[in-house]
Structures are given as structure tokens and as C-alpha cells.
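Researcher: Please translate sequence to C-alpha cells.
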Amino acid sequence: MWLLGNLQPCFRTIAGFRSENNEALQNLFKHFVQMLRSWNLMGGKTVAIDSSKFRAVNSKKNNFNPAKIATQLEYIDNRIETYLKKMEQADAQEDKERADTINNIIKQLNRKFKYKQLKEELDQTGADQISTTDAEARSMILHGSVIEVAFNIQTSVDDKHNLIAHYKSTNTNDRKALAPIAIETKEVLQADALNALADKGYHNGEQLQTCSDNDITTYVAVPEIPLKSEVPTPEYYGDKFIYNEVDDTSTCPQGKTLTTNGKWYDKKHERYSNKVKHYKTSACKTCPVKDQCTKNENGRMIERSEFAKAVEENGERLKKEYHIYIKRQQIIEHVFGTIKRQWGYDHILLKGLEKNNGEFGLIYFTYNFRRILNILGIKVVKKRLKRLFLWGFDSINLINVKYDQKLFLSHCKL
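Model: Translation complete:
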């Protein structure tokens, strides 16, 4: 700073650099994580996975869904009708008032054309919303009833020193996010197996099954039964029915056997669907506790998903090894607290998923770097970095060469 006479780049230079070098910034983070592995700062056995939403540059008024578009079109039609009536009344009056009314009608017609274009785009793409400032930003619930147009940053943190192992910028909720981020983290940490801790927002049978198939043991919180459930009393919730895998039946708390016709049915949940079997018994008709078990006049029906086994195994692990899951918050929550509260970084300044992957490569690199300064001390970090550069780290071009894990690790061995 002294040699340069305190010369500083302007904000446009910094913003342009971040925007144009998103791949290099992602690579910087990846290289740094591998360096942390080589320094034995990553455990590579257990990670906590969570996400946090960061406001996008797209305002809520520039985000549209079918209902909002329909409301606006109805409002415009009413305004045009009002102006037409006003023109009829102004026929005998001065031309200036008539001209103003015509201009207002033209203005409303232009707005109508804009909203019809947005509606056509939604119909063609099948999307449920559209953002006009940042096309990849989406309207999301931040917390409670607070809704913002944002990006959802999936993050995994290693439990040894609570260092960030991997991340991915997304514009969807957590329902389908567990397996992708867990599998990618397992590859980054080069682990043969991995424990993944996550909250109930990630609880999804398909995701739990995919994790199990990839040697990832899940500890995902189980969502509570909805208050509007058709089951009147907790004693007869679905988890109280015992499934028999040998003869493919289910036994109710009263000891009656529920059977299936063997058919798989598609059950839809919002935009997703999975296959389920139905289990019933005629004993419901004469059951003395039927009113405690179901509100359905035809008796109780149990649904069993194709991913039920993975769900049940996850639930059993959670009960027996809850001490493992309970570490989730202390492993990962402070990451978002530090970045959002202490650093004030609760919003995003770049547009699009790729650029924000680069942006978070920079911010997460900074987080990990500051953390290892506290873990190892400044002198030790400087010494290790100096040795790393002397061994040829500067031969890796972060900007022009794609990330190569093996090449980097060959430079990291100290």
C-alpha cells in the first residue's frame, strides 16, 4: 500500500474482476480445500449439510408467477375500460383531455403486451415463476412469512475443524438437494464413506436412498406429522404400523394384518412424484378403535413408498445415535451467522448461478482462510504457504487451466 501510494482499484474494477473470473474463483476454493486436506485439517468422515438464502439483485416487483400476471392483466383491462368510458364522456369536451386519455390507454396496452409475453414464456417453459432482472433468481421463503427473490447456497462443512468442504449455488429449495451435495462432497474429500447430517428440510425418500446407494450414511431429521393429518391420535401414526418384508404386509397396533394388491401408484408432491403401494384390511369395519385410527369411513389405508426402507433406516439411526445428529448445528450454523451477521454479507451482487458460484468461491475461501489463521496461527500458515509456493504451486494457472485435483495434491505434499 505504501509503495503504491495507497492507490486503490475502483469498485467497477473489483466487480468486473469477480464477474469475469467466476471459474478461477471456484478453482481457488477447490485448490484451497485440497491444501487443507493435505495439512490434515479435514476429517473426511462426517459433514453437516445446510443451505442459506441470499437476496438477489432482482426485486420482488420484477418477479412474476401466473397468479400475479393474471391479477395484473385483470387490473389493466379494468383501467382500459375506465379510460374508454371516460373518452365517451369527453367526446363533447376539449381535445386535450381526449388526447391524454388516449395516451393512458396506449400505456396500458403496452403493459398488457408485456404481461402477455411473460405469460407465454411461462407457458412455454413450464416454469412456475420468472424474474426479469436476473433470469435465474427465484422467489423463496427466507424465514417465517418473509419472501424474497434469492439464491439458495447449498453448503457442506467438515466436522473436524468446521471448515467448508464444498458448496453449490442453486435456485431451488432443499427437497432434492441432499444427494447431489453429499455425493460431490464425498468426492472432494476422497472418502470411501461419509456421514451426512441435515435438518428436516432435506428429508426425502429418494434422496436418502441415493445417499445410501453411494455409501453415504444419513442423519436427517424427520418432519413432524401435519396438524391436519387424517390420523386423529399419535398412537396410530404410520410409524406405529410394523412392516413385514417377507410377506409384504403391514401390522397395525391392534394386531391386524394389512395387505396390498401389489400395484404401484404414482403419488405427486408439488412438481415431484414417487411410487407407493397401498395396504388395507377389512378388519377396519368392525374395529372398536377405528375413530382413533382414521377419519376415513372406508377404514385405514397405509401407503408405503418405494424408498420406505431408506426412510426407516434413517429414522432408526436418528433414534439410536441422536448424539451424532445433534452436532449438526454447531458444525454448520456459525458459517452463515458469521457471513451474514458479522460480515454483513446477506445479499448477492452478481447475476446468474455460475457467477454466484464464483462469488461464493471467494467468500467461502475467505471464511476458511480466516479460520485456519485461528487454528494454526499466522506464523505457521505463512511458513506452510511459503514452502508450498517454493515447491511449485505457482505453476498452476487458476484462470486458464481447469481444476485438477491430482495435479494440485502433487504440489501440496509437504
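Researcher: Any highlights?
Model: The first strand starts at residue 46 and ends at 55.
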